[in-house]
């Protein structure tokens, strides 16, 4: 979802859909230009879009979730608290039973970083 797609962004926000963002893959596959400070993730975080950071094609890109989070923090500019919020969003959107989801969400909530 690129920034120019305001309709899609509003639809996602208004219907509380969850998006997974794979920043390295999005650039390497050409779906987003190689300009980290203007990556759509930055705008999504500012606009309160429900998304999480994930990874894609680890065998092709030799990446991990940790490397994606580091990239989003150091090159795109999201704060540690914004990264925490992204991962909380992901846990809340997870496809697992309610008890497991609650346990995961509770653990993430307990680890909220200070601003």
TrEMBL record:
GO terms for biological process: adenosine catabolic process; hypoxanthine salvage; inosine biosynthetic process; negative regulation of adenosine receptor signaling pathway. Its EC number is 3.5.4.4. One of its GO terms (cellular component) is external side of plasma membrane. Its cofactor is Zn(2+). InterPro entries: A_deaminase_dom, Ado/ade_deaminase, Metal_Hydrolase. It comes from the Eukaryota. Gene3D superfamilies: Metal-dependent hydrolases (3.20.20.140). SUPFAM superfamilies: Metallo-dependent hydrolases. Transmembrane segments: none annotated. Keywords: Hydrolase, Metal-binding, Zinc. GO terms for molecular function: adenosine deaminase activity; metal ion binding. Residues 12-110 form the Adenosine deaminase domain. Belongs to the metallo-dependent hydrolases superfamily. Adenosine and AMP deaminases family. This is adenosine deaminase. It comes from Mesorhabditis belari.
